[in-house]
Write a structure and sequence with these properties.
Elements (H helix, E strand, L loop, with lengths): L1 E5 L3 E7 L2 E7 L6 E7 L6 H11 L30 E4 L10 E9 L4 E3 L2 E4 L2 E9 L4 E9 L5 E9 L5 E6 L1 E4 L6 E8 L2 E9 L3 E7 L12 E4 L9 E7 L5 E7 L5 E7 L6 E3 L4 E3 L3 E7 L1 H14 L11 E3 L1 H4 L5 H14 L3 E4 L29 H9 L3 E6 L3 E3 L3 H5 L18 E3 L5 H17 L4 E4 L9 E2 L4 E2 L1 H18 L4 E4 L17 E3 L6 H11 L8 E6 L12 H8 L3 E5 L7 H23 L1 E4 L7 E7 L5 E8 L10 E2 L9 E7 L20 E4 H6 L2 E2 L7 E9 L3
Parallel strand pairs: 2-8, 24-25, 24-35, 25-26, 26-29, 29-32, 32-33, 33-34, 34-35
Antiparallel strand pairs: 1-6, 2-3, 3-4, 5-12, 6-9, 7-8, 9-10, 10-11, 11-22, 11-23, 12-21, 13-20, 14-15, 14-17, 16-19, 17-18, 18-23, 19-20, 27-28, 30-31, 36-37, 37-38, 38-43, 39-42, 40-41, 40-43
Helix pairs in contact: 4-5, 7-8, 9-10, 10-11
This protein binds (2R,3S,4R,5S)-2-(hydroxymethyl)piperidine-3,4,5-triol (DGJ).
Length: 730
């Protein structure tokens, strides 16, 4: 990496992974994105100049007498009448800032190509430093184009004037072409997260605010706008994700001029950021992914995550989490029996969930008292952990570090560590309150307690829970809003534990899927997608969580036959066949499983272990289907040599037989053998199509498979059919 200082009067053309970003940073103005989308090929100073002129709006009636220019940090003074980048003031003044760029630094792997005012490069990180001399605010605006074509950008402001500067918003936004008119983002609720929702982008704002003090089950996650009808495999789409685990904002807006942007930032509560002279506020990374179809967009997120030095590289251990097996019934003999059964089916990591610490006999008490409950565990956790380790499994333990029960020794000793405002305690949620980690002593206490447990026992993994929204989350004694500080403190705590205990893995669990974002993913190793492991629900939730995260980061477990959340009674082949495309695990009291179930489960564990390199390292493929009764998805090896596909029969199609499905994503010219894979006992009620042959399948090229396709087998609903495709050498 070399850093090059450029004059504040350039065009920048960054290209990587099939994406181009062209920035107009001429004449000391903040960079405006002239193009973000498919690669434009090499440019010259003249062609980029022409591109910029071509993009300039003609003056319409009743707007400013100069072309409106929307910068990456949109500026009101420029005539931009949409959401501004900075919303702030100094005692009512300095609220409309005009930044002048003083320096531009480019950090790039390769050398820069320069043609007059145009600078071209591959993947690079660019920092613009600017000042509003009159407003007394400095700005550092960063834009990176990462190797796979993912863009990320963030801003920091510093008060360089006199007196306090209050920041209420700091947004970054990227322009959308006019043809992008259809929004896709996500809603959700506890146990049913990441529900896709689509609507037209019309004049106005599509604003998704997260005010829960955590990412939220209803987070927009990725807010995309695409050409009408865009799908998984086709249709241009541009989307953003705010990489932050506290309050946040995603938005798409279209002005009456036709100009439109997609953007986001942290959502700051009243008075949260009051900058004294010399103080700064840094906003979160806002990630922007362009794709020709949603799979292409998802691949950019996945490639970025997989390239991080912190990405889990060793095979993801098959996990058993005891929660739905025993809940609060912590009994050593019972858990040892569960560990024995887990090891027998091939489990590699055993996780003890909520209920092990002092006084925690149910969910009304004990949070904050992070010492082992001696009533339930007279000899500590050692006997269980030794047994688990003796069986060759890793051990994991549950914590909920940011929370406190009013009925706990911690709350009795430090009632002033509970987040609150207005001289009252917040309404309880799951009977609990939030521990203010912004208070140094509270933070140190929790760090010390967790460190003590991690130092005493052989623990490879923490399941890090967070089971309530932050309501009235003020910092005592003033009661000033404290969500921003709390979020950063939680990050610091994770970072500190990871630094103290190298190799420690952390799962981001927040009532299931309420903390799924790239901020927490900077310091965690997987997410618990949802508390609901019903495969019918997980087919949707996993599918859409993969819009942001690759499957190896998705905790995905086989539950008991009758699902604890929905009451549905579903076949093991469907439960396991769904969970297997993720970080596979089990959440089931195996003492209640039949021998036949245990045999089948062993086969699924074995299947997963044999194929996890492909499942966790391949390119996600989701075929565009029009019938909600079934869906086709899978993973294609990066070199195209093989793939695993899953046909999930979610309901009963209206027609039977059902016609053909396609297998996209393979090497078009190469022949592939596609064959069904049976794991465990064969499903009843299936009629195989003729191309199955005697189980050896058929040979067709990738292009034929992606375009003409194959006849679906007839299947009962709520079943998964697994297909393996292998390229025939030749
Ligand atoms: C919510 C989690 O999502 C569950 O898996 C479990 O850990 C419970 N909390 C424990 O209280």
């Amino acid at each position: 990496m070399t850093t090059t200082a450029l004059p504040a009067d350039v065009f920048l053309h960054l290209t990587a992974g099939g994406v181009s970003v062209v920035l107009d940073a001429t004449t000391g103005r903040l960079p405006a994105v002239v193009h973000w989308g498919a690669s434009l090929g090499a440019q010259t100073a003249d062609s980029v100049d022409a591109l910029t002129v071509a993009a300039e709006e003609p003056a319409a009636g009743n707007v400013v007498d100069q072309a409106v220019r929307v910068a990456l940090l949109p500026e009101h003074h420029a005539g931009w009448e949409g959401r501004p980048g900075v919303v702030g003031h100094r005692a009512g003044a300095d609220w409309s800032l005009l930044f002048t760029v003083a320096s531009i630094d480019v950090e790039a792997e390769g050398s820069l190509r320069q043609d007059g005012r145009l600078v071209e490069t591959g993947p690079a990180a660019v920092t613009f430093r600017a000042r509003d001399e009159i407003g007394g605010v400095d700005l550092a605006l960063e834009v990176e184009l990462l190797a796979g074509g993912l863009v990320r950008t963030r801003a920091a402001v510093t008060n360089v004037g006199s007196g306090v500067y209050e920041v209420s918003e700091l947004n970054v936004a990227l322009p959308l072409p006019t043809r992008a008119r259809e929004i896709l983002d996500f809603a959700g609720r506890w146990s049913k997260e990441r529900i896709p929702q689509r609507r037209e982008l019309v004049v106005g704002s599509h604003l998704r605010e997260g005010r829960k003090g955590r990412t939220g089950p209803d987070a927009a996650t990725v807010l995309s706008v695409g050409v009408p009808g865009f799908g998984f495999r086709q249709g241009e789409v541009w989307g953003v994700h705010v990489g932050f685990s506290g309050n946040h904002r995603h938005y798409a807006e279209r002005l009456s001029t036709g100009a439109q942007v997609v953007g986001g930032g942290e959502l700051l509560l009243a008075g949260e950021i009051l900058l004294d002279e010399g103080q700064s506020y840094l906003g979160p990374w806002v990630y922007a992914s362009y794709g020709d179809g949603l799979d292409d967009q998802a691949h950019r997120f996945h490639r970025y995550l997989r390239a991080r030095p912190t990405h889990p590289r060793r095979p993801r251990p098959v996990t058993l989490n005891v929660w739905e097996a025993v809940y609060f019934d912590h009994d050593l003999d019972r858990l040892i029996g569960l560990a024995d059964r887990a090891a027998a089916v091939g489990v590699e990591r055993f996780v003890l969930d909520d209920g092990w610490f002092a006084g925690r006999r149910d969910d009304t008490r004990g949070l904050g008292d992070w010492t082992v409950d001696r009533d339930v565990w007279p000899d500590g956790l050692g006997p269980l952990i030794d047994h688990v380790r003796g069986l060759g499994m890793e051990f994991g333990l549950w914590f909920e570090p940011e929370m406190v029960s009013e009925d706990s020794e911690l709350a009795r000793a430090h009632p002033d560590w509970i987040m609150q405002t207005g001289g009252r305690l917040p309404l309880r949620s799951r009977h609990q309150q939030v521990l203010d980690l912004g208070i140094a002593a509270a933070y140190e206490h929790i760090l010390e307690r967790m460190s003590a447990i991690l130092a005493e026992y052989d623990i490879a993994y923490i399941k890090w829970d967070h089971n309530r929204d932050l309501i009235d989350a003020g910092t005592p004694p003033t009661g000033r809003a404290g969500v921003h500080e709390q979020t950063l403190a939680a990050y610091r705590l994770m970072d500190a534990l990871k630094a103290r205990f190298p190799g420690l893995e952390i799962e981001s669990c927040s009532s299931g899927g309420a903390r799924v974002d790239l901020g927490v993913l900077e310091r965690t190793d997987r997410v618990w997608v949802s508390d609901c492991v019903d495969p019918l629900e997980r087919q949707q939730m996993n599918r859409w969580t993969m819009q942001l995260l690759p499957p190896e980061l998705l905790g995905s477990h086989v539950g008991s036959p009758v699902n604890h959340t929905t009451g549905r009674d579903l076949a093991l082949s469907f439960r396991a066949g769904t969970a297997v495309f993720g970080h596979f695990g089990i959440e089931w009291d195996l003492a209640r499983a039949t021998d036949a179930d245990l045999d089948d489960l062993t086969e699924w564990v074995d299947f997963h272990i044999r194929h996890r390199e492909l499942l966790h390292g391949g390119d996600l493929v989701r075929a565009d289907q029009v019938d909600p009764a079934f869906q086709v998805y899978g993973s294609v090896a990066p070199d195209g040599s093989e793939a695993l596909f899953f046909l999930a029969f979610l309901g009963r199609p209206n027609e039977s037989p059902h016609g053909r499905f396609t297998l996209p994503g393979l090497d078009g010219d190469a022949p592939y053998r596609v064959r069904p894979v049976t794991v465990g006992a064969a499903d009843p009620g299936r009629t195989d199509p003729r191309w199955y042959g005697d189980g050896t399948g058929t040979v067709l090229t990738g292009r034929v498979l992606a375009t003409a396709g194959l006849q679906l087998p007839l299947s009962l609903p709520e079943r998964v059919v697994v297909l393996h495709a292998s390229r025939i050498a030749g």
